[in-house]
């Protein structure tokens, strides 16, 4: 297989769950957001919304609201200096029609692509990230004052410089032969 800088970046990116206290420069966060802004989306609807918390007090209040009870296990991730709330703006006609006809929620697909653009841009900057799916989405909408305004939470993304002693923990990947097929349906 041929090598590429992008492939190297994909291999370098790993979920980081412990962060240095050092704040993240706004310019670097903006670069990550710009990478997300450049992502493709169904019918170019760009349904993603990124709400960035880098103010320690406001971030602490957010954590108190969305990472309590059963969700408290995600608190260690929230020690990252930055938390990005990834939302989608719902009820966009094109997404609704495609969703109803095809059964695919393209807004969620779009949000995933945008979020991962952000994550890979962060990795390129030497920043660590971790997607957080285990949080209280309803509480997030309430905390942000977005009830009834057509937003749906997708994930949180923890962002920061990795702690100095974070080891390069490699999660296994399925072989290409299992996840891709040529001119045939998948075997399993
Ligand atoms: C949508 C999504 C939600 C995730 N939620 C969590 C989470 O709540 N807590 C966590 O520790 N990791 C979470 N992860 C990280 C995955 O566990 C991780 O990406 C996977 O194990 C592969 O490891 P790697 O990212 O280091 O390659 C999530 C990842 C994705 C894409």
List the helices and strands and how they pair.
Elements: H1 5-12, H2 26-37, E1 48-53, H3 56-66, E2 82-89, H4 93-102, H5 106-124, E3 128-132, H6 137-143, E4 151-160, H7 176-179
Helix pairs in contact: 2-5
The chain binds flavin mononucleotide.
The site of flavin mononucleotide has 11 residues, from β3.
Task: Provide an overview of this structure.
The protein is of the alpha+beta class and about 190 residues long. It has one domain: NADH Oxidase (3-Layer(aba) Sandwich). Helices cover about 40% and strands about 15% of the residues. It has seven helices and four strands. It has a four-stranded antiparallel β-sheet with strand order 1-2-4-3, with helices on both faces. α2 runs antiparallel to α5. The longest helix is centred in the middle third of the chain and has 19 residues. The chain is globular and about 55 Å long. The relative contact order is 0.22. The model has no long low-confidence stretch (mean pLDDT about 95). Bound molecules: flavin mononucleotide. Flavin mononucleotide binds next to β3.
Mean pLDDT equals 95
Calculate the terminal CA-CA distance, rounded to whole Å: 24 Å
Which fold name is given in CATH as the topology? NADH Oxidase
Number of domains: 1
Distinct ligands, ions and cofactors found in the model:
flavin mononucleotide
As a percent range, the share of strand residues is 15-25%
The helix content is 25-40%
List keywords for this structure.
188 residues; alpha+beta; NADH Oxidase; 4-stranded antiparallel sheet; 7 helices; 15% strand; globular; binds flavin mononucleotide
């Amino acid at each position: 297989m041929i090598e590429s800088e992008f492939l190297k970046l994909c291999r370098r990116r790993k979920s980081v769950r412990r962060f240095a206290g050092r704040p993240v420069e706004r310019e670097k966060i903006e670069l990550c957001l710009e990478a997300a802004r450049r992502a493709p989306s169904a019918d170019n609807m760009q349904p993603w919304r990124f709400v960035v918390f880098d103010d320690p007090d406001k971030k602490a209040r957010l954590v108190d609201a969305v990472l309590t009870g059963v969700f408290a296990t995600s608190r260690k991730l929230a020690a990252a200096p930055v938390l990005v709330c990834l939302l989608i703006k719902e009820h966009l006609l094109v997404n609704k029609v495609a969703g109803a006809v095809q059964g695919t929620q393209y807004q969620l697909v779009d949000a995933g692509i945008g979020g991962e653009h952000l994550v890979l841009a962060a990795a390129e900057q030497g920043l660590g990230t971790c997607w957080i799916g285990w949080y209280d989405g309803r509480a997030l909408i309430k905390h942000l004052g977005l009830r009834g305004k057509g937003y749906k939470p997708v994930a949180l993304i923890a962002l920061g410089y990795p702690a100095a002693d974070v080891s390069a923990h490699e999660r296994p990947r399925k072989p290409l032969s299992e996840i891709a097929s040529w001119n045939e349906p998948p075997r399993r």
